[in-house]
Amino acid sequence: MTTPTDPSHSAEHSPFYAHLARLRYIKRWGLMRNAEEEDVAQHSWEVAVLAHALAVISRDVFQQPVDPNAVAARALFHDATEAITGDLPTPVKYSPAMRHATANLEGEVCREMVSLLPVALQPSLTAVMDHETWPAHEAALVKTADRLAAWLKCQAELRFGNPEFAQAEQQIRRKLDEHMTPELRYFLDTFAPAFALTLDSLMQGE
């Protein structure tokens, strides 16, 4: 039987994780025709996997002091605030007027969401949600993974015969090239080509 002082007993209900569960209903690329729709929950998982991969490459190939598990956790929560704000399309998010208007929005929503948690859990979730507290190298890995996921999405749409993503693919690839890192180069050379293969080709190891 629990008592009021038992730390395993929570007297208050929290909607924090219920908010996160709704990321599956928030569609990305909302201003564009998609051959295959993508939601924020799916995107977050993909960015977490890619960020973990880049971090492992950084640690094991280039001998950098980085924790892949910490990077993956931060990547998993990198768009968590969109549970409240929704996904702002890139042309809107980065227009001069909107950039000024939304400059502090993400931080404010992050603090609001963390406040929904029991007090004992708030420091741990702040560490993975608040971008401003991330170590610089980990933040860079997550940003690279985010761009990489977007580029792979554009590539997939083009393979589906959807020219709507042609300009976005070129723009994102230029960003990747401008911010090329050893980890990204290694991933693009080693793993990216297989994303264009069919299932039969993947199974045959081609």
TrEMBL record:
GO CC terms on record? cytoplasm
Q: Does the keyword Hydrolase apply?
A: yes
Gene Ontology MF term list: 5'-deoxynucleotidase activity
Write out the entry's keywords from A to Z.
Answer: Hydrolase
InterPro entries per UniProt: YfbR/HDDC2
Pfam families recorded for this chain?
YfbR-like (PF12917)
Protein name, entry field: 5'-deoxynucleotidase
Upper classification of the source organism reads: Bacteria, Pseudomonadati, Pseudomonadota, Betaproteobacteria, Burkholderiales
